[in-house]
Amino acid sequence: MIRTAMVGLGKMGLSHLAIVRAHPDLNLVAGCDATAYLTDILGKYTGLKCYAEFDRMLDSERIEALVVATPSKLHAPMVQKALDRGLHVFCEKPFVLDVADGQRLVELAHRKSLVTQVGYHYRFVGAFKEAARLVRSGALGEIHHVRAEAYGPVVLRRKGATWRSAKNEGGGALYDYACHAIDLVNFIVGTPTSVDGVVRHSVFSRDVDDEVYGTFHFGDGASGQLCVNWSDESFRKMSTKISVWGTKGRLTADRQECQLYLRETHDALPGVGTGWTVRYTTDLSDEVWFYLRGEEYSAQIDYFAESVKTRRLDGENSFASALETDRVVAMMLGAVAERPASAAPAPVARTVWSRLFG
Amino acid sequence: MDRVLFGDNQFFGVNHMSEEKARAQSMRFQELGAIIEVLDAAYEEGIRTFMCTSHDRVADICDHFRAHPEKYPDYRFYPCMPYAHKYANAVTEHGMIEALRMLLPQEGAVAAMLKGGVALATKDIEAIMQLLIDAEMKMFYGLSTPVVFMQNVITDLLLGLRMNDCFRIFHDHVKSRYGAEPAYITMNVPRLLDVLDTLRIDNPIVCANINKIGFRMCGGVTAYEEAIAKRRFRPIAMSVFASGAIAPREAIAYVCGQPRIESIVFGASGRGNIRQTNALIRELSVRPIDS
Q1: Contacts of A162 in chain B (CB under 8 A)
Q2: CB count, 10 Å around CB of A222?
Q3: Is residue A357 scored above 70 in pLDDT?
Q4: A141/B contact by beta carbon, under 8 A
Q5: Hey, is B17 helix, strand or coil?
Q6: What pLDDT, in 10s, does the model give residues B142-178?
Q7: What is the pTM of this model?
Q8: Does the pLDDT at position A340 exceed 70?
Q9: What is the pLDDT of residue A290?
């Protein structure tokens, strides 16, 4: 059993708490949140040992792993302390608000050989995994365009008092919704090398963006578009979709299904014919040991536990991977004009090519 | 319980297969009339129970049934609470305590307490849960609600958190205040049964995905089949078609092959599908269970 603690017991925190507590290999020894009523209730009704102060919890508890689900601006300092103490860390997304912090933490974790993971749960959704597999197969040919979209009903009127509506605290649709969409782009087609045409507008919020649009450019000449709006009531809940166009076909994936159109068959996809092939979540989802809100939330925690057990340091959604997403966010904020060429991964089409044919 | 229960996902844009289909459905069922038409078709096919979330729009459906008691003399609602996105969106926008303030009734002792900043000072979850249940039940007043469900998001959250007392609070309040049978929707049947056993909640009604391909059946098909065959509870099968992944006859045959499954809940948008599914259940039920 991996002795684990959690800090941050808000909305995502409670969901993680439930999943962590249900995991057979994780022993949740303590939780920490500054909100006393919450920790009091958890203590009283679930017997969870709770702390109000993060440092005190770290000083008092003998733990191997930490789950961080605090507001975004607290990620960097808390993760730093955890890594300093040699803990494996699962951190909610976005990883950090300042790329320099992220770089330091990636290096620290690497130096100490610690397992790291960030909660980009869409990488554990069957349909998006399938999309990534199809793109990597090369069947779509040369990828020339990608579009990532995320819409949902979060801010629907001129009010809002949580950290999600606060500037400089990781609030706004960019850090909340857009991060997921950007991370999916990185996952499925690779990381953009530059960004332009960025529009960040408030629809209802006073201080932060409610809609975010931008154009991505990739090293191999491909382009992409990001369309994010969390003030769209016509969506029942967050809805994320990615479409990829290549010279030999296209695909569109969302949480429920992956639709593929091929102009010609491809050796890497035996049995897949030309025209449309649709696969659904019922077919693409792997069973999880415990279900709450979606297989992906359990799957990512299970993956983290497995990483800790096997000391897998280069797994999915590592700090290094999530930092790529933070870099794109930074580009969108205009803080960084362009990513340094050395940090840019090879474009996907070429990577696949070299993998297949040396 | 009736053998066949009618579900509501199709009315509110919930479709586990396709977001496009979900949107088309929410357009089609925008007007109350379109929903009532389908419920009437189900009624004419002999389906007397509507199992529905406490979605805001269900209040309109309830109004219709209250206004026409003569048309549906033997109609029953099985409320499932709460419609979780209402809560989740409120928490994201306003934070947990403020959301709670908004969702709780504006009058009464606890509301006053919350307003006064005492805010859960006593950590009395029981009082708050009772108020939340009452708030969700409000739309069903005057209608027959013999079974009241806790939605799976809440059941499974509490299950994971090990907040077992909440099941007991729900159970007792639903029984004493509404004279109804408390019931639970879950994606984790074996685990939930273990907890309800420890709480000595005997022979509970549990609604869960039960389908041939094991879609969203945590613990696996075998564990489910074993639990259904051997453990003391009253299973209701939902998602029997696994969102269309299983052919209708095969899907119903699988569920009907397990005689201890008391009821099957399904949703459909047209009379043809309702009739077909209903007929299949009647045909393939080994031993029809009386309500």
Answers
A1: 92-95
A2: 22
A3: no
A4: no
A5: coil
A6: 999 999 999 999 999 999 999 999 999 999 999 999 9
A7: 0.91
A8: no
A9: 96
> B245 to chain A: which residues are within 8 Å by CB?
280, 282-283
| Predicted local confidence at residue B41, as pLDDT | 97
Query: Between β-strands A65-68 and B49-53, what pairing exists: parallel, antiparallel or unpaired?
Result: unpaired
Superfamily of chain region A122-293+344-357: Dihydrodipicolinate Reductase; domain 2 (3.30.360.10)
Q: Residues A135, A189: contact at Cβ < 8 Å?
A: yes
Angle between helices B152-161 and B165-178 (to 10 degrees): 140
pLDDT tens digit string along B252-283? Answer: 999 999 999 999 999 999 999 999 999 999 99
CB B160 within 8 A of CB A19: yes
Domains observed in chain B: 4-284 (3.20.20.100)
E strand or H helix at A249: strand A249-254
How crowded is the C-beta side of B242, counted as CA atoms within 13 Å?
22
Identify from B14, B57, B87, B92 which residue to disrupt to test chain A contact, counting A C-beta atoms within 10 A and taking the largest count.
Answer: B92
DSSP A96: -
Partner residue opposite A46 with nearest CB, options B92, B162, B244? B162
Report whether pLDDT(A358) > 50.
no
Residue B142, SS3 per DSSP: coil
Measured in angstroms, the CA of A261 and the nearest CA of chain B are apart by 17
Tens-digit pLDDT profile for residues B18-30? 888 888 998 999 9
CATH class as words, domain A2-121: alpha beta
Q: What is the ipTM of this complex?
A: 0.90
Q: Which of residues 171-200 of B touch A (CB under 8 A)?
A: 187-188, 191
**Quick one: pLDDT band at residue B82, thresholds 50, 70, 90?**
confident
Nearest residue of A to residue B17 by CA position? A256
Report yes or no: B181 and B205 within 8 Å, Cβ to Cβ: yes
Which residues of chain A neighbour B157 with C-beta distances below 8 Å?
14-15, 18, 292
Please say whether the dihedral angle defined by the alpha carbons of residues A287, A289, A295 and A301, taken in this order, is positive or negative. negative
Please compute the mean of the pLDDT values over residues A181-187 and round it to a whole number: 98
- Dump strand ranges (E) for chain A: 2-7, 26-32, 50-51, 65-68, 88-91, 116-118, 143-151, 194-201, 211-217, 223-229, 239-246, 249-254, 257-262, 275-280
Cis link prior to A94 (omega < 30° from 0)? yes
Residues A239 and A152: beta-carbon distance below 8 Å: yes
- Domain spans, chain A: 2-121, 122-293+344-357
